[in-house]
Amino acid sequence: MVLDADSAYLALKARDARFDGRLFVGVTSTGVYCRPVCRVRTPRRENCRFFDSRAQAEAARFRPCLKCRPEIAPGLSHTDSSRSLADSAARLIEQSVHQGEPARLPALAARLGVTDRHLRRIFQAAQGVSPHDYLNTQRLLLAKHLLTDTALPVTQVALASGFESLRRFNAAFAEHYRLNPTQLRRARGEPATRAATPLRLAYRPPLDEQALLDFFARRPLRGVEQVEGLSLRRTLAWTQQGRRLAGWFEARFVPDRHEVHVHAAPALAPVLGAVLQGVRQLFDLDADPALIDPVLASMPLPALPGLRLPGSVDGFELAVRVILGQQVTVKAACTLAQRLVDRFGEPVETPFPALTHLFPQAATLATADPATIGELGIVRQRVGALQALAAALAEGRLSLQRGTPLAPTMDALRALPGIGEWTAQLIAMRALAWPDAWPAADIGLMKALGTRDQAEITARAEAWRPWRAYAVMRLWHQLEQA
Description:
Structural class: alpha+beta
CATH superfamily of the largest domain: Hypothetical protein, domain 2
Number of strands: 11
CATH architecture of the largest domain: Orthogonal Bundle
Radius of gyration: 22 Å
Strand order of the largest sheet: 5-9-8-7-6
Helix content: 40-55%
Largest sheet: 5 strands, antiparallel
């Protein structure tokens, strides 16, 4: 635990949002565990037990609070997922659950390059629970989230949460939470408007939502994405168990609650977990300013509290846009990406006039005539890089999702034609959510730091480890505001 029990109790009494998602309190008199920001009456000190994670609290037989809802709390900000096998395993487990896919420990261990016995041992030591318990907690919390905020039938909730049968889901839910799914819905009420109720995601303040949304607004992709007020809307397609699901989502910041409220197309109901996970990465909702800001305080910039690392919901789309941005301006890269959407994007129906197309699929670009792509104004070298990347993803040789093991993914990217270190670092920064990515050859960084000497730039950035990607965002932000 980061805090001793007495300090944790003081954070609980103060309802300190800095510890939201990093600290959970189990109350022995009720059998419930809460977030430190819970608005219920503060329990007596002798009735409190403190945990680093939801999985630890549930392994101790506490059930989640129905008021503060631990399932919407922000996750942990990992310093460098490439250096922590247990963290990488945890992210892969979360990814499999939110995508509704089976999480088999032997397959997971093989993907990480270790035996399942070794993985169990290091996971228990790092997370305080077994991989199986961690997996079960993620499934149940996702199910609770969907039961509370959606009108999905219980059977669909069970499948979307990764349970292979309704019977197993009901048994696990009753065993851990001591009520069945239908009882939970009755306890929360079931208004006729439940279908319009947003899914909620919490974050730790401060978060500069305007700067984050402005970043996306300055990189428009007409038909695919739209920023309006405090909302971002976009189209999205997801393949689950061989079935392609297409739709849209809208994510709106609610600053006074430190939350993002998400609405999604009914067609995406089977993958709502993946949509929520994607929004978390898109807006960097798991970031922990209390860890990041002190390290970056030495930067030669004014304080920029709440500046986050913009991510992506589609790693392929992000990687394509980075490749198109090689040696051209942001505006020119957006123009080229727009031409790809107009030529190869798939039409999709949405309730928003500004959202009309999906970003082209990897398989579509991999098999397209190179000359046709070249007619869009994309030079031959970029066409080759785009098609090599698309083929690697379409054939399953490469994955660009948060939680994917970093080192082999970076090696695979660098091995593709037309992808150098700058491109690989930017893809790692925004598609893989690597907080220490450092694209030393970036012209913006050179301009902001006043030198073109990459060795000097990299040496100066050593003081900003392991949050150099956030340093990149601060330097870019300073340039854009100049």
